[in-house]
């Protein structure tokens, strides 16, 4: 160790010995409220549910705030969903609700935005014209894969000198053991961040399996997962924002949603609202 290193370490050790807070593990760092968000679609009592959730922000897969959400403290973040959404009207609306703009929704899936990389790159300057800070298209899978949809988009953006200020991802865990699921999620996020070196927005996340149709674990499993996940993401300051999927829950049966119609909280809804 150099003499300079020793001079730095000694005061640090003294601080750790005299200040218990200085010795607290990194996993105990509390996220700011603005990091935590939620995806919102129409439900009875949506405004009340959003208020009760204490979410710092929300998106609705739209360029403007939906009419079914009234005044709340949560910040609305606009999105240009797909190729058909790149209109003068949508871009003007998004510009009013910046400073951030989410890019295309799962362009790598045929049942979602369904766009090839070249099409997305050709349209990206229209999004740039808003002057807003841009979050990449949110791929459903393979964000860290060399040669994958996102990798080809990010490479093309650099070659064309297009601006991408952050990377968006979606993640649905099929392992219903919460601690294992968090490890799988953070491993994926770490790999994506290592590849692109940009802030990450996790704009859809929950535990859900899609084999044989969407299936979710019991509410107490989702509740445990969201607590552990929030703690783990809090140790990664490059995870700028994350959004649970979603605010509404089915009136009956298992759901990853936070609130049933009428703003009645589910088990995961109570856990989410109680996050520090």
Automatic annotation (TrEMBL):
It comes from the Bacteria. GO terms for biological process: fungal-type cell wall polysaccharide metabolic process. Residues 51-272 form the Asl1-like glycosyl hydrolase catalytic domain. GO terms for molecular function: hydrolase activity. Keywords: Hydrolase, Signal. Residues 1-23 form the signal peptide. Pfam families: Glyco_hydro_cc (PF11790). InterPro entries: ASL1, Asl1_glyco_hydro_catalytic, GH. This is Glycosyl hydrolase catalytic core. It comes from Nocardioides exalbidus. The lineage of its organism: Bacteria, Bacillati, Actinomycetota, Actinomycetes, Propionibacteriales.
């Amino acid at each position: 160790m150099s003499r300079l290193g020793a001079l730095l370490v000694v005061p640090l050790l003294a601080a750790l010995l005299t200040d218990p807070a200085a010795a607290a593990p990194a996993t105990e760092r509390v996220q700011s409220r603005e990091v935590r968000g939620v995806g919102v679609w129409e439900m009875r009592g949506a405004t009340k549910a959003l208020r009760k959730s204490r979410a710092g922000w929300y998106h609705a897969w739209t360029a403007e705030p939906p009419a079914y959400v009234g005044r709340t403290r949560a910040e609305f973040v606009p999105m240009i969903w797909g190729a058909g959404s790149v209109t003068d009207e949508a871009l003007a609306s998004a510009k009013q609700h910046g400073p951030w703009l989410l890019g295309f929704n799962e362009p790598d899936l045929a049942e979602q935005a369904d766009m090839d990389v070249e099409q997305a790159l050709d349209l990206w300057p229209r999004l740039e014209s808003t002057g807003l800070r841009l979050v990449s298209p949110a791929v459903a899978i393979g964000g860290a894969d060399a040669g994958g949809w996102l990798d080809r988009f990010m490479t093309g953006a650099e070659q064309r000198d297009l601006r991408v200020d952050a990377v968006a991802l979606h993640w649905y865990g099929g392992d219903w053991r919460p601690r294992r699921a968090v490890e799988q999620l953070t491993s994926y996020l770490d790999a994506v961040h290592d590849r692109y070196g940009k802030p990450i927005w996790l704009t859809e996340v929950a535990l859900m399996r899609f084999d044989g149709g969407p299936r979710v674990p019991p509410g107490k499993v989702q509740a445990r997962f969201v607590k552990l996940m929030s703690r783990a993401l809090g140790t990664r300051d490059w995870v700028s924002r994350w959004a649970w999927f979603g605010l509404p829950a089915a009136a009956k049966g298992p759901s990853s949603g936070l609130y049933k119609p009428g703003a009645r909280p589910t088990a995961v809804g109570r856990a989410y609202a109680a996050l520090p």
